[in-house]
Amino acid sequence: MARVRHVAFLRAINVAGHAIVKMADLKDAFECAGCKGVRTFIQSGNVVFESSVKGAPAMFRRLPVTLRDLLGVEPTILFRTIGELDRLVKADPFTGFDVPPDAKRYVTFLSRPPERAARLPLVSSKEALEAVTIQDLDVFIVSRRKKNGFYGFPNNFVEKELGVAATTRNWSTVAKIVEFAGMLV
Length: 185
Known about the structure:
Strand content: 25-35%
Helix content: 25-40%
Number of domains: 2
Structural class: alpha+beta
Largest sheet: 5 strands, antiparallel
Number of strands: 9
Number of helices: 5
Order of helices and strands: EHEEHEHEEEEHEH
Distance between the termini: 17 Å
């Protein structure tokens, strides 16, 4: 039976004291839902796992129910295959855009197509953010250092602008997840 390696990106896990969960408990929950080869990557809710191609849709429906018991709230989970992420990283959607060396790059994974069409670039002057491109269900954001020395974080901005639940990861984290998943073969 053909198997596919996926990444589950959980929204708002272990961030600012919200939805605190041990990675061992998260791993156990994924295994209880029928996932195979489960591994977590850093503490922010990134889970690499395998499923059969045929069984993946049912597993995607079981996971929120299983995780609700663990987290105490209905989780937002965005799924991508390692193949999709690998192609994304290799294509580097930031190429061709003005990204200063001290800027941070992010990808925001959307749960579904946006409710509203986006006119790019989407800009938040207050947060020093610029969504430079959207490809399928992925939004690519440049975050420049704000006057206070901090960087803006794009998730709430993207959700508000596009009207859809999402979760955001640093671009370098996505590249490291692809590398990590490749080492698990």
